[in-house]
Design brief:
Blueprint (H helix, E strand, L loop, with lengths): L4 H18 L3 E5 L2 E5 L3 E4 L2 E5 L1 H18 L5 H29 L5 E6 L1 H34 L1
Antiparallel strand pairs: 1-2, 1-5, 2-3, 3-4
Helix pairs in contact: 1-2, 1-4, 2-3, 3-4
């Protein structure tokens, strides 16, 4: 289990999604006021402006799913399917992030100061999950070829 490279990829993807859930996603100015966008909410001048619990839920589900997938090492096809579903969750994170940002604040009034680490981490998790899927597929192909030789 832990000697496979795809396990390391999945563990790192889970860690990246956990980092995305607890670090600021973006910091920007809206009409002269400082706004911090996190996975749990949008804070304007230190006060909670609106809750974004759905975004936090997506990051936690994605992280738990990656950790759960690690322990399914004997069921490689299920690992691949769950990893693909996890990719969909990670892409959904960005879609929901954009939707919330567009819904809460008009784009013409935004002035981005800093893009947070939390926005970059899901991209890293997507890349790591794709690498894990490729390695799991290679293991499955190897096992099938060995089964052909035996039978």
């Amino acid at each position: 289990m832990l000697q496979r490279i795809q396990t390391l990829f999945l563990l790192l993807a889970a860690a990246a999604m956990l980092i995305a859930s607890v670090t600021p996603l973006a910091i920007f100015l809206h009409e002269g006021e400082n706004v911090v966008f996190e996975a749990m909410g949008v804070y304007q001048n230190g006060e909670l402006n609106s809750s974004t619990w759905g975004l936090f839920l997506l990051t936690v589900v994605s992280s738990v799913l990656a950790l759960f997938t690690v322990f399914l090492y004997k069921q490689r096809m299920l690992q691949i399917r769950l990893s693909i579903f996890n990719l969909v969750c990670m892409v959904g994170f960005y879609l929901y992030f954009g939707f919330i940002l567009y819904k809460l604040y008009p784009v013409e009034n935004l002035l981005f100061e800093k893009v947070g680490v939390g926005v970059i981490m899901p991209v890293i998790a997507i890349i790591l999950t794709i690498l894990a899927i490729r390695k799991i597929g290679a293991d499955e192909a190897l096992v099938r070829s060995l089964n052909r030789l035996r039978g």
